[in-house]
Amino acid sequence: MMAFFKALVRKPASKEKRDECRRAAAEKVPEATFPPHGYQPTPINALLANALDLSALASDALVKNRKNAWIQLAGHPGFFAPAGPTTIWKRQPENENTEIKSYQQLMSDSVRDVVPRFHREVRYNDGVFIELEDLLEHFNDPNIMDIKMGTRTFLESEVRNQAKRNDLYQKMVKIDPNEPTAEEHANKAVTKLHYMEFREKGSSTASLGFRIEAVRMSGETPNADLKKVRTKEEVMETVVRFTRCNYTICRHFLARLQEIRSRFESSKFFRNHEIVGSSLLVLYDHEQNSNIWMIDFAKTLKVSETLSHRATWCIGNHEDGYLTGLDNLIQIFTDLTNCPQAGSDGDVIHHVNKDI
To answer: Residue 7: pLDDT above 90?
Structure first.
């Protein structure tokens, strides 16, 4: 399943107002009551609930603080809903607790400060959810970029079946008629492994270890048509457009990426977990607030091997290339901030034409 993130766009609110909402929520929403005592449905509550097909918990404080619109960057809709002024619920697949277990362990790991804070597992209306920190709470109408990490975005279990499939062959030749081998052309069928590896080569996933999944600029609709951004130069151009050539923001992002790498490399959790389909969520706003978090751990699985996250993948070694992607992403931001045309704080970067 594709990784995704629903961004909750807010009207600017003062720190005092946010603190007031937190206090009100703490008073009005008992920790284990769903919905809260005395809850009355309202049109606003119904609108928020429709995002997840449930009668969502919504206190008066939440309603006052969330006059908003949901923005989906990429993937399938219907998995996120507001839980309180500073948290969200994320629906979990039936009979799966992979992401729940991952977040529970990450809260005591070296990476705990670079992932959303995990609050609890919630069972409601026959569904299972995790309650997470709402990362958008730190920003006012932010610019958002979703970067899918790793040199592969599929699990080994998805490609172990060596059966040759005509449907995947048809998809492949529609994109590139020269990709199948002579034998595959004769059989008009390819394995899922060949097709998935071919698909990864269509973006920067295979070559750089990450791809820009989607971008949403403040005041604009999301752009999820970025999977063909493939070369380092194309990625740099996309990053420059996203940051609006702001040297200070680029420098902040570089420092945060270096921190994420350092924490990842010292992580006991990721030493023996493959991390597939995970993203980096990159945000900044007009007030120069900026940050990056690791998100999406639904395909993060424990393995018996010790992983480098940089070695070349082959079936059975579980290497995912996450750190390869992070290394290349750090190099791109290093190049942008170190180029001769880069200025001091607040200046723009002219390494790439900012009007492209």
So the answer is: no
219: left (phi over 0), alpha (psi -120 to 50) or beta: left
In the structure encoding, which two tokens stand for residue 273, read together? 């977990």
CA-closest candidate to residue 134, choices 5, 278, 4:
5
Burial class (CB in 10 A: 0-12, 13-18, 19+), 353: exposed
The full length of the chain comes to 356
Q: Structure tokens of 196?
A: 């998935």
- Between CA 258 and CA 262 the distance in angstroms is 6
Residue 204 neighbours by CB under 8 Å, 6+ apart: 210, 211, 212, 229, 230, 231, 232, 234, 235
Q: Which residue has the higher pLDDT, 222 or 329?
A: 329
pTM: 0.77
Q: Tell me if residue 290 falls in helix, strand or coil.
A: strand
CA distance 188 to 11: 54
Q: How does strand 118-124 pair with strand 127-133?
A: antiparallel
Cα-Cα-Cα-Cα dihedral sign, residues 136, 8, 65, 99: negative
